[in-house]
Amino acid sequence: MSKQRNITLKDLAKELNLSISTVSRALNQHPDIKPSTVERVTTLAKQRHYSPNLFAKSFRSRKTNILGVIVPNIAHYFTSTILKGILEKAEEKGYRVIISESKNNEVKQTEMLQTMTQFGVDGVLLALARKTTSVTDVLQILNRIPLVMFDKVSDKIPCTQIVIDDKEAAFNAVEHLINIGKKRIAIIKETENSFNSEKRFAGYLKALKEHNLPIDEKIILSTEDISLTNGRRLTNILISMKNPPDAIFAITDNAAIGAIKALNKFKIKIPEQIAVVGFSNSMNSTIIQPALSTVDQPGNKIGKTAVKYLIQEIEKPNEDVSIKTVKIKTSLIIRDSSFTA
Amino acid sequence: MSKQRNITLKDLAKELNLSISTVSRALNQHPDIKPSTVERVTTLAKQRHYSPNLFAKSFRSRKTNILGVIVPNIAHYFTSTILKGILEKAEEKGYRVIISESKNNEVKQTEMLQTMTQFGVDGVLLALARKTTSVTDVLQILNRIPLVMFDKVSDKIPCTQIVIDDKEAAFNAVEHLINIGKKRIAIIKETENSFNSEKRFAGYLKALKEHNLPIDEKIILSTEDISLTNGRRLTNILISMKNPPDAIFAITDNAAIGAIKALNKFKIKIPEQIAVVGFSNSMNSTIIQPALSTVDQPGNKIGKTAVKYLIQEIEKPNEDVSIKTVKIKTSLIIRDSSFTA
DNA sequence: AATCAAATTGCAATCGTTTGCGAGAACGTT
DNA sequence: AACGTTCTCGCAAACGATTGCAATTTGATT
């Protein structure tokens, strides 16, 4: 059961007693070719189910119409919504998408960047691996092909970046807690210099300051791995304090859900005694009891926007691409974990 | 800021006063080339950061080392774990992966199959769009390039398929419910002729029969869209019956979670009054209270296995590829929703 | 009928790499 | 010194498509 060979321009040309170039032009509606031959060529092409070898086309034009995407973890829900947006926009614009997972491994990340450029993708979309320390490899890529970053970015890399306004989003979330009457708001964040965590923390601080609330380091908790388990663990610490908080802002839904689980276990009333707000609007946030208030990040839009700017750079390389940081609007979704009638 | 051109064999050849072929052979450790020139070539290549144009290579060898993947929905958790497996195995074997979403749209699906073959991927991995009625387009592809299907498959397509044993998995789940003493087990399934739903239903029936339990059509409920909302809706129907079930088997975690939400609302004790078992081991299943018993489908393994067989077909096209259906083992995870000490 | 312009078509190069074959050089054998 | 091997290397074709330019045909004009 061997596979049938694709038919080429040459095949058509031979069968029609024409030159390859004439056949090519006939199929590309070049004005030079007389209508009758155009007719002959197109009918035979249809009959034989001719379809141009895109690979050969790409090879000649030095344009692959392929975008490379590198993300830390494809199975992360927020990431997958971004990918969805990327796929949609790319397809709409006639691009194919190669996806790779860096698994938060910096070495792998550079390897992937290299194979991608080596392979000849027209541009790369990149969400940095966590704790990416050296950006020199990325900078290398930058003067070879267009690059747009999203979600996990670094200001050390001069390229267009699509992000959400972490600081503002966190500010809004915390301000909401203040507005419902909370005065002692804890935060659960990451220790490592995570791009997002730091910005969200800044938003937290800003909200407290603007509302003249004291900042108490005892209720500013950090963890290396911002997981459900650690969210629960840190919440246990918070509720065993002599002066426990009346609200918890977790910079991740998972951690927030861990918090709720801990509070539920000790029958602490949410949101009356302690309110909880998370970040991401993951699937889980509506599953947990009570439903979690959280910041919605429009992944789809981020993906689409990233592709839009990347293709702009690809198709207009001459115009000096103004490097910009695009901030996608988030929205606070208020659910039972912070809702008071 | 124009991008720098990649350097080619020609460049190296000119600079070394050698022919392109010699340079090529030198870099590919061809025995014909004398050690001293190999030396000269390799050092210059390193110096100039030469890396072969993979696209040109592919073009010549007619081997792209690209696999195409088409799935209905990339943001579905189970699907994304499969993709993870696919990416891992593919990378390990030196293949790149192009991913497309059919969005359960049959027309899009065929379009994508066509662009992929037209582009020249070495093989395709396909999970069928729901309600795919006509498989003729897929059959068309089948005699052009290697194809392996997974998860959503059809027995009308003669190719290697990687699936889980839906029937057996469902059988085990229902038998488990019987073992903990349940005698009146409802099922929530899909109406449409979904490949998976029917098989799981068959497993349900088999378990009841083997244990001599009566089959009551009143507690066999179906829905077009097997969602959380519909799971809740149908459960409401079940608990308002004069003779309600003492267990619910939902063929999807989402529906099962909907069931739990409905039961919780009416303060029906889980699992004492009504036990619940789902299917998929999604993230949500540990978030809901009580934690959901469910069937774990090893997505990662499915993905890896699919790639393994696909590459086998690609690299040994002569040997008559024995078309086989590989069933990946599932395991029942027992949690609080069906646990009795 | 001769000439010229316009309409059609073909030649050949090109993209970057690999590879069969042949050519020339170096070396050893008699 | 003549011949045959063995080493090295370059030529040119090939993958499939596009395209500038030249070549050919056609038709029109005088």
TrEMBL record, chains A, B:
Highest taxon in the source lineage: Bacteria
InterPro entries in the record: HTH_LacI, Lambda_DNA-bd_dom_sf, Peripla_BP/Lac1_sug-bd_dom, Peripla_BP_I
SMART domains: HTH_LACI (SM00354)
Gene Ontology molecular-function annotations: DNA-binding transcription factor activity; transcription cis-regulatory region binding
Domain HTH lacI-type: start-end pairs: 7-61
Transmembrane segments: none
Signal peptide positions on this chain: none
Keywords: DNA-binding, Transcription, Transcription regulation
Protein name: LacI family transcriptional regulator
Organism: Maribacter vaceletii
Pfam families reported in the protein's UniProt record: LacI, Peripla_BP_1
Keyword DNA-binding attached: yes
